[in-house]
Amino acid sequence: DTEVTQTPKHLVMGMTNKKSLKCEQHMGHRAMYWYKQKAKKPPELMFVYSYEKLSINESVPSRFSPECPNSSLLNLHLHALQPEDSALYLCASSQDRAGRNEKLFFGSGTQLSVL
Amino acid sequence: KQEVTQIPAALSVPEGENLVLNCSFTDSAIYNLQWFRQDPGKGLTSLLLIQSSQREQTSGRLNASLDKSSGRSTLYIAASQPGDSATYLCAPERNTDKLIFGTGTRLQVFP
């Protein structure tokens, strides 16, 4: 199994809603990542988890809250989002921490629309 | 701050052509560089990873070269096919868990 699975594929939410994005991998990878991608732009790093501990937060607003309950699962909790947060949210994983010549495996993303 | 630029931004060619996609980066102190492809509305697929000690990597019709000193990488696609149509992204990486993605090249190969 070389897949990173993201659910849901599409999400529409209001600015007062609370929702969560889910990411799962069963490759035994110990590093997991959240990226945000706006239309026709490259992905931008949001968070990195290494061995289930948050190692990087790229100054992301607190309305985005990541969680890594175990080594296979990564969540992104969303609360009080703004319309400008509408984007494709991508999850990725690697065998070990990036920077050690590890390929990243990406999920197909969650397309989020905030109304 | 690392800045990564890809040229051309878009490319439309008939199938069968050999293609050259360019990537330049401002910070040459990188650990490795990956090339990805992304289909519209989808995630990214890693194509090639070039370690800092290497100068090139090959996979099938794809060949990527890396010149750290000049801050450049090139992706060659031989005998292009319509199935190669996608956006291609380069991503140099320092030893900081961070990939910085380039601006991308949107490729269309028509029959």
Short description:
By secondary structure, chain A is mainly β.
Task: Walk me through this protein's architecture.
The complex is a heterodimer of chains A (115) and B (111). Chain A has 115 residues and is mostly beta strands. Chain A contains no helices and eleven strands. In chain A, a hairpin with a 2-residue loop joins strand 5 and strand 6. The model of chain A has no long low-confidence stretch (mean pLDDT 92). By secondary structure, chain B is an all-beta fold. Chain B contains no helices and ten strands. In chain B, the strands form two sheets. Chain B has a five-stranded antiparallel sheet with strand order 1-3-8-7-6, with no helix packed on it. Chain B has a five-stranded mixed sheet with strand order 2-10-9-4-5, with no helix packed on it. In chain B, strand 6 and strand 7 form a beta hairpin. Chain B is globular and about 40 Å long.
Proportion of β residues of chain A? Answer: over 45%
Can you tell me the residue ranges of chain A where pLDDT is under 50 for at least 5 consecutive residues? Answer: none
Computed structural class of chain A: mainly beta
Mean pLDDT score of chain B: 92
Count of strand segments of chain B: 10
How far the N terminus sits from the C terminus of chain A, by CA atoms, comes to: 36 Å
Radius of gyration of chain A: 13 Å
Largest sheet of chain A: 7 strands, mixed
The chain pair with the largest interface is: A-B, 27 and 25 residues
Q: What integer is the average pLDDT of chain A? A: 92
Number of strands of chain A: 11
CA distance, first residue to last residue of chain B: 41 Å
Provide the succession of SSEs of chain A.
EEEEEEEEEEE
Portion in helices of chain B: under 10%
Give the helix proportion of chain A (percent range): under 10%
